[in-house]
Write a structure and sequence with these properties.
eight-stranded antiparallel sheet, 3 helices
Amino acid sequence: MHRDRAGDFGERVRDEFVISDAQVDPARLDAWRRAARTRNGQEVKIDMTYRKGTRVLGLLGVSVLAACSTAGSGTDTATPTAYDVTITNNSPQVVTPPLVIAHQSGFSVFEVGQPASEALVVQAETGDPSALAAKVGGMADVGDAVAGAGPVPPGQSVTIRVTAGPGARYLTATGMFATTNDAFFGVQSVALPTDSAVKVVGTTIYDAGSEANNELCSHIPGPPCAGDSGNARAAGEGSVQPHPGLTGSGDLDPSLNWAAGAVQLAIRAVN
């Protein structure tokens, strides 16, 4: 796993607060700062409040609101629509701050059978969604990418609001299972509801394939592993696959395993 060096909060630039993290392309951040007023006639806001070096239970939220280009789409609407996405953790695990993305068709964060991107690996191994939020937030087919303000304990929920800009009519969400090597819940390209009905969808628990499932606290950031146990990396399987679940080997108790319906999403149009 990754081990983040202790660092400082980012710098405040004009009215935006941006992180100074080596995992985020400085050129992209600079371009966002220059475009902070408008892009394609729409307001662009960048709000990143992640502090490098924090552990799972100390992660802060990350929010990237990006304006999308409307070129080439005959189905785009003039007014973005907001959606509240309630993520419920039905598992015995802590779920790290989830990332919710509103996007156009054809977008994906991962593909089963293919290696995970480095940004997704960071989230799946450390629980930090900031690198993935920054990566997708700069894409033309993404309308909004917002992370939760903190982890979601077992039996609790968090509601995240995203704005579906022109053409962004699909939703993707990810979040790490904290007491694993690299397990994450994922759901991709869910069609956003077009009426007032609440849309409820389940998720799948995936193995990012970036780290072996040795179930050792020296490689795991979440409880009950000690805060100073480290977060090392061991070579993994090489591709994203459905997670087989915990085996109870290593330092983990099998009671931390999950069942079907471990994480559920409820999507509701706000306007």
